[in-house]
Amino acid sequence: MDICKVLSLLLVGTWASLVSGDLTECDALTMICGNLVQEAFTTYPNYADLKTPQLIQRLGYPVEEHNVTTADHYILTMYRIPYSNSSPPALGKIPVLLVHGVLASSVQWLWQPPDRSLAFMLADSGFDVWLGNSRGTSYSRGHTFLPSNDPNNLTYWDFSFHEMGLYDLPATVNYINSLTSQRIYYVGHSLGTTQFFSGISLNPGLASKIRAMFSLATSGYINHMTNAFFRASAPFLVISATEQTINQLGGGQFLPQVMQQYIGDFTTYCTQYTLNCGVCNTVFGVLFGIDMCQTDFRELPGILAHLPDTTSTKTFAHIAQDATLGTFRQYDYGLNNFAEYGSLLPPNYDWSKYHVPTVIYYGDNDNLAVPIDVLATANALRPNVVQLSRVNYSTWDHMDFVIGKDADVYLYNDMLNIMRNHTYG
Ligand SMILES: *[C@@H]1O[C@H](CO)[C@@H](O)[C@H](O)[C@H]1NC(C)=O
Ligand SMILES: *[C@@H]1O[C@H](CO)[C@@H](O)[C@H](O)[C@H]1NC(C)=O
Ligand SMILES: *[C@@H]1O[C@H](CO)[C@@H](O)[C@H](O)[C@H]1NC(C)=O
Ligand SMILES: *[C@@H]1O[C@H](CO)[C@@H](O)[C@H](O)[C@H]1NC(C)=O
């Protein structure tokens, strides 16, 4: 996607948030964050170089790398924390697969200290932890024959969350299941829930390998999202997608290297000048729903160094279609739908095919997975929803599910109890 377009969307989004009062009083706290960020930079001067395996190892946990090839030839890399100091290797550990959201990667589970990070808490509690990386992220860029590092190769980047559900989900679940002979717990955040819902509805048999699904920032129906960046960019993406001009939009990779470079510079700028920290956080808050009340500023350099990761423009176009039309259905090819599907409109994902016990947590201040949409999704899933919990914290936002400093208190402890007690599977 063209850098100027991205930047103007970013500015429009920030401005729109300020005008609409989307920012909370906690954002004022950002004015004091500079010193803490500086402190973290002193501790980890090369934070950006710490990738998922190093972030696991630096805390004394073992890590394994596993590559899985999907039925459509994409190569995905998963990381595994098979045991920990407090829970030595043992047979029969139950696997838990954690799947990140859009523009993120497995790294999102590793920013918090071990005693309040879901991945480490699970490993310490005796679970076999697997961190997925969706196709197109910097961690899962393999393909058996396409040039995956060419941001403009539209053959490689021709996928959305549909393919993540249709191919990535069965490839990873089947791999873990056959290696461990265990049914697994699935934890999805944001697009990690979307691809699960679509994937199970397309491949209902997979449900027999899943004990239960934990849905954080549930993203099935998404048409009430207030996130200014998405709202501002959705119309452009929908028009270009249905007009088949996704090419002209820059096609291919959504966040090309130049954009990441820019964000890198932005991060450096923010940390060098204390007062600008507020501006920096505001932009990222608008983009990702980072709640300043729940941010540990010492983790911020790590977060900013790895967010955003990459995905395809088509993934964004697909999200934009559902966000605009209130649908949850396959990709809309406009005039080419007939050739693609044999019908004028794309098929809906069939909720009636979904049979997995599902535990849903939602946050009042989540500007991407807003409560009214989460409840609509829960309603569609109804017989499968075994628990529907509002996080009891009024400004709980989209990223708080993974980086909120009190996430352990508000949901991880509950999730661990459910898994340890085999409450639902
Ligand atoms: C997985 O694939 C990546 C990239 O293709 C490669 O660098 C890495 O060595 C592979 N890892 C394993 C364990 O095979
Ligand atoms: C992507 O790369 C492959 C292999 O080099 C090539 O065959 C294909 O035409 C390319 N696709 C596009 C749209 O450039
Ligand atoms: C929610 O939190 C408030 C205080 O923040 C507390 O008074 C209330 O009891 C809590 N409700 C539940 C159901 O835990
Ligand atoms: C089972 O759940 C209860 C709360 O419902 C909790 O107090 C208990 O510690 C859990 N047991 C295990 C083994 O996690």
From TrEMBL:
- Xref: PANTHER family: LYSOSOMAL ACID LIPASE-RELATED
Enumerate the UniProt keywords alphabetically.
Glycoprotein, Hydrolase, Lipid degradation, Lipid metabolism, Signal
One GO MF term attached to the UniProt entry: hydrolase activity, acting on ester bonds
Q: Does the keyword Signal apply?
A: yes
One Pfam family, please name it: Abhydro_lipase
Enumerate the spans annotated as Partial AB-hydrolase lipase domain: 53-110
What biological process terms from GO does the record include?
A: lipid catabolic process
Active site (catalytic residues)? S190 (nucleophile), D366 (charge relay system), H398 (charge relay system)
Q: What is this protein called?
A: Lipase
Do the record's keywords include Signal? Answer: yes
Signal sequence coordinates? 1-21
Record-stated family: Belongs to the AB hydrolase superfamily. Lipase family.
